[in-house]
Amino acid sequence: MKAIKWGFSLLCVAAIAAASVLLLPITIAALVIGGMIMVLGMGAGLWRYKQKPTPAAPAAHLLPNPEESAVPIAVVSPTSEALTTAITPSLPDNPPAPSSRLVLHQHRVIDKLAHMSDVLTRVVDFERQYHIAHSHQRPVHQILGFVNAKGRVNTNASIQDGIAICKQEWRNWHPDRHPGIQEAYRTSEQHRSRIQAIFSFWNTLHTALKTGLTHNTWPPLPKLAGYERSPQDELHHLIRRCDTLARDQDRIARDQDRIARDLDRIARDQDSIANGFKEIRRGIQELWATRARQQAVLRPFISPIQYGSPRKNRYSFYRIPLSSDEVQASCELYREKESIVKRLRSSFCYYTPPKNKEHNTSPTTSSTDPVYTK
Q: Could you give the dihedral angle defined by the CA atoms of residues 101, 103, 106 and 107, in that order, rounded to the nearest 10 degrees?
């Protein structure tokens, strides 16, 4: 395609150059070279098209089989024949790595579920059949129906299975073994009594099985006093209760985290308020400092001395002192100036006019003569 494009471009150049007689050699060269490039490009494209392989039919083993995809296959776990699970058909001989890991994970999950189902079924059946055998005074192995490979009743194997289950449950229900049971045991008296009852139940069942296996006498199996549910139901109930307590603890932890964040935000707000008060106090101090500087500038022009007559026409200029020392200094200065004024008054004689307006110039003193007072 690139060769065809270049050839077409050269042909266009030749067509443009043909308009001028002076560019005739360039026109001929462009026509020849462009034509050759276009021919070579078309030949290369045709050769590539012929060399391209034709699509082959898909392999037969890769085609989906409608019969196999429609009918699920039942896979039985080797640990228990009672559990069957429908899964998808198996993959080819060489599946990719993700698919093989997925199938292996599915098989592991199925085996684990089968084992759990087998254990729970054996425990529940053993407990029920043990009570039936004790009530009917019949041997336990006849009720349980465990047989060996030769078809004979395997009493020892059945009792040993029961003893192993009792030991395991006795360990599981010990408060020191399971963290969830330990948390429920510390929660309240009701949970503590329930755990102790189930714990003693498995312990007594273990003792009864060992006694029956040793002496072939089967004592009565104690029930859980005060509980309508079976031990397995109590077990599942307490497990659910432990899960509920764990979720409650998680919710409480989230609430505590939220409260802690709120307290941090309140502390930050208090810090910002305190910083605001500090700024206000600093501003007030700056204002007082500015006022003090202004008063220092105006101090030579403001004086607390009174001018004019002591009885009338009093006009004074007072300044507002800033401290007790300045107040004391101002008062002392004012008292000093007042004493100076009084001393001056006592030193000079003031003329006092007579009561009548007649003026007598006789040397003798009378009531009408002017009075000179010192």
A: -110
Estimate to the nearest angstrom the gap between the alpha carbon of 286 and the chain centroid.
46
Within a 10 A sphere around the Cβ of 273, how many other Cβ atoms?
A: 10
347 lies in some domain: no
- The DSSP result for 98-148, as a single string, is HHHHHHHHHHHHHHHHHHHHHHHHHHHHHHHHHHHHHHHT--HHHHH--B-
Do 42 and 120 share a structural domain? no
C-alpha to C-alpha distances, 183 to 43, 204, 256, 257, 346, nearest whole angstrom:
84, 24, 20, 22, 104
For 223, which DSSP code? P
pLDDT surpassing 60 at residue 194: yes
Number of domains the chain is built from: 3
**Domain extent at residue 40:** 2-50
pLDDT band per the 50, 70, 90 thresholds, residue 91: very low
Summary mean pLDDT of the chain? 59
- As given in the structure block, the two tokens for residue 354 are 């007579």
Residue 104 belongs to some domain of the structure: no
pTM as predicted: 0.23
Question: Would you state the pLDDT for residue 23?
Answer: 65
> What whole-number distance in Å separates Cα of residue 233 and Cα of residue 58?
55
CB–CB of 153/142 below 8 Å? yes
| Pick from 138, 127, 134: nearest CA to 161 | 127
In a domain, 116, yes or no: yes
Q: Which residues pair with 90 in a beta bridge?
A: none
Pair (116, 46) in one structural domain: no
Can you tell me the distance from the alpha carbon of 106 to that of 368, in angstroms, rounded to the nearest whole number?
145
Place of tokens 């004024």: 341
Does position 33 have pLDDT exceeding 70, yes or no? yes
Tokens of 189: 């008296």
Percent of the chain at pLDDT exceeding 70:
21
Phi, psi of 85 (to 5 degrees): -135, 135
Partners of residue 357 on adjacent β-strands: none
